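pinned: reference chain
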Amino acid sequence: MKNINNQAAKSEKVEVMALFNYSRIPCQPLYYRKAGEGEVEITETIGARIKFVGNSAKHIFQCVAGKLSCQLEFDTASLAWTLIEG
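pinned: its structure tokens
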């Protein structure tokens, strides 16, 4: 993902509180937290998709947190969330 200035997007591991259920949307991120910082509420989930990589899958969520547009990725192999800003 590149921003308007053609700079590489910044990614980092984050903690995510997500709602998992069995409805039309099986997972919905509610907020994320960077290390040493407070919670950031996800105000809107714009889209979601799955990308298969080897024997695992990455669940990718396009989100809006306030005025920030970002992407959250959940890796099913490592069970880690990554925030991609940019």
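why pinned: The mean pLDDT is 88. The first strand starts at residue 10 and ends at 20.
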